[in-house]
């Protein structure tokens, strides 16, 4: 029983801990463990994009109706971000949310089994809604945890590097789908059986991972820790009431618009290729989607490298601007040209989501946990924009003109990248945290050395004074 006492999930949130000043070395294990979660929901998200087209084929439903998968998946996120997961995060801590999210994910994957067996699209959407609650819970905790677990100076690098494994998951899922879902075009039953086995394997894996998280001694980061970081860097904006955190709400708006556009493009990528590239099968289009997601992952690794030498807010503005530039030709072009434009768009999408999270959280201090729920909650845009794109595609009976929908949402999100680069009230907290020396081992050693040296100098001065006094005495 002693081991279970030590692993208690109940954590305080008002006391300072050593987690506020975690060094790079101390943060490696928890970051590696949490990075597995990014791969998990990248895989789940990529699987969903492939299933979108698969259900159109096997269940003979329209593009607009198939977007019910995305609506169920991302529609669950606000319930997690602003409801149960956020409440658990603020009252129990990060580890409790990780375990809760994994359990919901596993339950949803198990429920998907009978729904697929009975070819119930509505039932499968309900299972996806539960999975969305699980993954929404994981994102509620994982994104802010990666951002604040370690030196604040490298928060954008950490979250983009971890999110790169999300991109790897989105590459693997369409490849799997091309062989598992679309291979048996003459035997839909066989394909659906394979889908069942995929979800059973997911359920087993996530339940085992929940056990690993329970027994792992990962550091808990409190609101007091975040307030300390904000005060130390003089970037704290938490002196204002939460309702006046306008930077936070703008970041949430940008996240809503950007994520909606990203999800819409990925969800209808296979439709786009089949519609605009004559003779392309759904299986081949799924493999092209895997290539596009590979470009997405490459863009994220390159973004991490660039952020090592260039301010993250500059890289953010550059990437989002080129998302707008390259989605435009995809509306009018056809064949390989149009598909290439979407490839490049996905490449530049890569760093946007995690960078909005990192930049939006900077300077929030004691509001960090609560605020992160709002920013990550912007993911619910993925429930709104894909149905709009699907409806426009049904009107034109062509997916290409419907790419004007994500273009409009990219432009709306662009407003935040402009603000964080050119408006001082946005820019200054970001830059102050970026210059912070908290958690940097060398800096801490230098400061410790300076304190020791100063103490030694004082002691020498006192000894010298005492010797003079004693020599005068005799």
From TrEMBL:
It is a multi-pass membrane protein. GO terms for cellular component: plasma membrane. The keyword Membrane applies. The chain crosses the membrane at residues 28-48, 68-89, 96-114, 120-138, 159-182, 197-216, 248-270, 282-302, 314-332, 338-361, 373-396, 402-423. GO terms for molecular function: transmembrane transporter activity. It is found in: Cell inner membrane. Residues 455-474 are annotated as: Disordered. The keyword Isomerase does not apply. Keywords: Cell membrane, Membrane, Transmembrane, Transmembrane helix. Pfam families: MFS_1. It comes from the Eukaryota. Its main location: membrane. This is L-fucose permease.
């Amino acid at each position: 029983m002693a081991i279970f006492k030590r692993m208690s999930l109940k954590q305080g949130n008002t006391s300072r801990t050593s987690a506020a000043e975690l060094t790079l070395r101390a943060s490696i294990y928890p970051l590696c463990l949490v990075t597995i979660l990014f791969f998990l929901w990248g895989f789940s998200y990529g699987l969903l994009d492939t299933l979108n087209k698969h259900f159109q084929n096997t269940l003979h439903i329209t593009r607009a109706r198939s977007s019910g998968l995305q609506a169920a998946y991302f529609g669950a996120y606000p319930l997690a971000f602003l409801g149960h997961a956020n409440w658990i995060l603020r009252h129990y801590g990060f580890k409790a949310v990780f375990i809760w999210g994994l359990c919901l994910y596993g339950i949803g994957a198990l429920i998907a089994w009978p729904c697929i067996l009975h070819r119930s699209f509505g039932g499968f959407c309900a299972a996806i809604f539960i999975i969305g609650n699980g993954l929404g819970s994981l994102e509620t905790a994982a994104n802010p945890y990666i951002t604040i677990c370690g030196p604040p100076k490298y928060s954008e690098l950490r979250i983009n590097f971890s999110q790169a494994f999300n991109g790897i998951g989105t590459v693997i899922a369409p490849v799997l789908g091309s062989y598992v879902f679309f291979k048996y075009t003459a035997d839909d039953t066989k394909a659906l059986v394979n889908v069942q086995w995929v979800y059973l394997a997911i359920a087993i894996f996530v339940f085992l991972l929940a056990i690993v998280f329970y027994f792992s001694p990962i550091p808990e980061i409190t609101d007091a820790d975040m307030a300390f970081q904000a005060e130390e860097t003089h970037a704290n904006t938490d002196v204002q009431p939460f309702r006046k955190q306008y930077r936070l709400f703008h970041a949430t708006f940008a996240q809503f618009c950007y994520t909606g556009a990203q999800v819409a493009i990925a969800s209808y990528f296979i439709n786009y290729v089949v519609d605009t590239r004559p003779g392309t099968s759904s299986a081949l289009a799924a493999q092209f989607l895997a290539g596009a997601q590979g470009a997405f992952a490459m863009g994220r690794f390159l973004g991490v490298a660039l952020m090592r030498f260039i301010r993250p807010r500059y890289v953010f503005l550059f990437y989002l601007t080129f998302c707008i530039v390259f989605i435009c030709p995809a509306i009018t072009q056809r064949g390989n040209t149009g598909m290439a434009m979407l490839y490049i768009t996905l490449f530049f999408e890569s760093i946007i989501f995690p960078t909005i999270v990192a930049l939006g959280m900077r300077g929030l201090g004691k509001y960090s946990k609560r605020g992160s729920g709002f920013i990550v909650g912007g993911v619910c845009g993925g429930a709104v924009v894909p149905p709009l794109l699907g409806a426009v595609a049904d009107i034109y009976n062509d997916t290409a003109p419907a790419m004007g929908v994500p273009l409009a949402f990219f432009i709306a999100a662009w407003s935040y990248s402009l603000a964080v680069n050119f408006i001082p009230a946005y820019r200054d907290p970001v830059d102050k945290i970026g210059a912070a020396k908290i958690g940097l081992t060398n800096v801490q050693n230098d400061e410790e050395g300076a304190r020791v040296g100063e103490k030694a100098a004082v002691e020498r001065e006192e000894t010298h004074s005492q010797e003079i006094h004693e020599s005068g005495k005799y």
